[in-house]
Amino acid sequence: MAARAKTILFGSAIAGSLYLAYLYATDTRASVHRWLVPPLLRAIFPDAEDAHHAGTTALKTLYDLGLHPRERDPTLVSDPSLAVEVFGTTLSNPIGISAGLDKHAEIPDALFALGPAVVEVGGCTPFPQEGNPRPRVFRVVGLDGMVNRYGLNSEGADAMARRLRERLRIFARAVGLSESEVLDGQAGVNPGSLAPGKLLAVQIAKNKRTDERDVYAIAADYVYCVRALARYADVLVVNVSSPNTPGLRDLQAVEPLTTLLTAVVDEARKTDRNTKPRVMVKVSPDEDEDTQMEGIVQAVCASGVDGVIVGNTTRRRTGVIPDGVKLTSREQQALMEEGGYSGPAMFDRTLDLVGRYRKMLDAQTLHSAGEADETAATSGEERARDPEQKVIFATGGITNGEQALRILNAGASIAMVYTGLTYGGSGTITRMKGEMKKAQTDV
Ligand SMILES: Cc1cc2nc3c(=O)[nH]c(=O)nc-3n(C[C@H](O)[C@H](O)[C@H](O)COP(=O)(O)O)c2cc1C
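Above are the sequence and the flavin mononucleotide SMILES. Below is the predicted complex in structure-token form.
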């Protein structure tokens, strides 16, 4: 009898410990996610791309088993003080994960579980392409930074569409609706994110082999992606700012950009769904002269694009090493690799660009509204509808809640992270949200 009681006690103790271990390990607040996992990944995988694949595969497997890290803090999951209004939808918070982390849309739900309201998958090209030869991702650990020249490795738009459709099918079956009914909003969720208060952004780009001087061929690449992917997206992001596809950034000049964005907006409006996906364009931090930015703003307003993602990796290397920081020769070599640099040193540049884009976009929107009013008045029509303010998402060097608040105060609606997440681990977004809440209550 005593032996049986002991066995039951022992079994219960083990089961209880396992349950506590499960609760701890799957909570984004657990310190192992910040202090153990990222350095361990760096130690096990000297090539940063291997670490990237290991991280996404682990998240996918854990998600499938129900053992993935998730935001368990009930005060953060849906805190009204963090909510923001974007494209007429109330989002649960103003944090996003930017493109490149989930290039093939394999883990959008595992990423949403980490707490952001926006997840951007991609960049995706119309046809599969391998990207640049490896090695093509380099860590600069002393700066919490990274250089990458992936070159938009993609499985192609059809493969991504199949994956997103399968995700939709599973969701529709679970709620007892058809796919079309879910897409038309009858499940009470956004058609891309498949969740209330969240948005799935799908980023599209051109194939490397498409002639970089032929804007109509380039527009056809983007339109192909829209046709394949628009049904599954809340937001389509037009990438014209990756530094690793020859000629891509030249598309930011006003004429080609207007042609390209108009083609994407027209195609997105044909999406077979009640609500159409919004369109944003992701612009480079290196095109930062007033004339270049004004050209972009002009193209945005002329084409009817809904917003701008301000920032990406940079080709420049000036000003990225703070005073007093000494890099090892390996880190110096990594920093000088060909490709785009990302890391906390980009923050001030992102903040400046967001403020300037905010002013320019608002001025141009007002100007366009004035012109529309005049036309309406002379033709005797009713007053033209007030145009919506263009939305800004910001990306580049954002790593904590205080920075996210400053970016939002400068005029962005969403602060996005990538490199900060790879160094800070899967609890980064929860930590940032906590810091934002604290800063708001401290005021
Ligand atoms: C390894 C890596 C891959 C990336 N891939 C893409 C991509 O496919 N498309 C894109 O627009 N940006 C891509 N980015 C840029 C990020 O989305 C982000 O805009 C940039 O890194 C700046 O933000 P951060 O300082 O938070 O990293 C990539 C960045 C890194 C580090």
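Residues 98-100, 103, 123, 137, 146, 148, 150, 152, 203, 239, 242, 282, 311-313, 342, 346, 395-398, 417-420 surround flavin mononucleotide (CB under 6 Å).
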